[in-house]
Amino acid sequence: MVETVHELRPKAAESEKITINLGFVDLGHIDLLVAEGFYSNRTDFIRTAIRNQIERHGDAVRQSVARKAVDLGLRHYTRQDLEAARDAGTPLHIQVLGLASIATDVTPELARAAIASVSVLGALHASPAVKAALADRAR
After folding, report:
1. Regarding beta strands 92-102 and 115-125, do their DSSP bridges make them parallel or antiparallel, or are they unpaired?
2. Are 95 and 77 a contacting pair, CB within 8 Å?
3. Which of 8, 31, 60, 124 could cross-link to 120 by cystine, CB 3.0-4.6 Å?
4. Residue 121 burial (10 A CB sphere; 0-12, 13-18, 19+)
5. CA distance 71 to 52
6. What end-to-end distance do the CA atoms of the chain give, in Å?
7. In 10 A of CB 2, how many CB atoms?
8. 111 and 86 in contact (C-beta within 8 Å)?
9. What is the Cα 4 distance to its own chain's centre?
10. How many H-runs (helices) and E-runs (strands) does the chain carry?
């Protein structure tokens, strides 16, 4: 008997891939630290450096998040969330530092009717059609 498995909610990516350009001298320094065993690889060094900088500026980030009323971390918007906002006549102002995701069953029309603005520092996961519908509302 063959069973069909349907994923009810797609698993969100745990990270976002970025590309950086480094000078040869900086890259050489990183490779030396890896070769000497301080880091397991280049990625380990880069992640550690980024975390150290985020920690170094932690107070400023916390103050900014509090001042701007930003959701910190992961924020998922369901079709029901957007329908409720639309029906109440109170469009959403999405402000997220981290990952904002909009459910796959949200139509572009519903997104435009329910979302007044979108400001995401990090990543926005939504269908290409919903992203296109909200393009003029993104900051």
Report:
1. parallel
2. no
3. 124
4. middle
5. 22
6. 51
7. 3
8. no
9. 31
10. 6, 3
